[in-house]
Amino acid sequence: VGQILETILGFAGRQAGDQIAKALKEQGTAVVKKHLIGAYGKDVIDSYEKQYGEEGILELARRSAAEGVC
């Protein structure tokens, strides 16, 4: 059961990363941020943006697109 759940969560994380990658290529920062909020939660992204700024948000998006959402 644990392996099945791990596989499903891994697949979901990869799917979220793919959506973020698509938003990075085709849409603006606001849409990318919306996807990140969906993946990590509003409080986490707001805190991250406050600490690292817009460029930090875009870097998080790039890493999430490359590695998937954990």
Give a count of the beta strands, DSSP E runs of length 2 or more: 0
Count of alpha/pi helices: 3
Which structural class fits the helix and strand makeup? mainly alpha
Helical content band: over 70%
Could you say which overall geometry the principal axes of the C-alpha atoms support? globular
Secondary-structure element series? HHH
Q: Note the beta-strand portion.
A: under 5%
**Overall radius of gyration:** 12 Å
> What is the average of the pLDDT values?
82
Cα(first) to Cα(last) distance is 20 Å
Could you name the ranges where pLDDT drops below 50 across 5 or more consecutive residues?
Answer: none
> Sheet bearing the most strands, described?
none
Tags for this model:
single chain; 70 residues; mainly alpha; 3 helices
